[in-house]
Amino acid sequence: MRTIDESKKKLVIQTVLELVQSDGIQGLTFGKIAKQAGVSSGTPYVYFDDKIDMLSKIYVTVKEQMDVGLAAEVEQGTTIQDKLFLAALHFARMFLAHPLETNYMNEISANPQAVSPAAIARGRDLAAPMRQLYQEAAAAGVIVTDRAEYIDALLFAPFMTMLANRRANGEAVTLPELTALINLSLAGLTK
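RESULT FIELD:
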């Protein structure tokens, strides 16, 4: 059995993120990954059983990375509106700091069949604090809908769209711009 070389594993994962950014998930193969990473064709198999295992493990790792510190930041809010703002701001910061990972999450969201049901379940578990915040906001009557999918769309889609459009045009997005957009989103979401 081959030993795990953590630096090669990181290289494989970084290459996956880059290939998903440039080519999407559908055409991703272990052969392409190995070639772009400059490793032998068998190297990805040292770390992952198959494509679904690889995409699933990376998905969970990225989801955990994006959620680090979320609960502590949200708890700093004194009102539900503050907490919603801080949650969105947390993700805006993460998305700016980790553009490849953000793109990866978007690709998985658009192609959920690419990851295992266990990975999807783990992602839902990691999203539980956001769902609890949504329930709290709905129970307090401060938001216009109690449907999580609508809340996600109103709160996150505007700045995700801005990030994608700017990236496609080779333009940067600043945190103040995202903050302004989050405030506009909250104006549409809250009563």
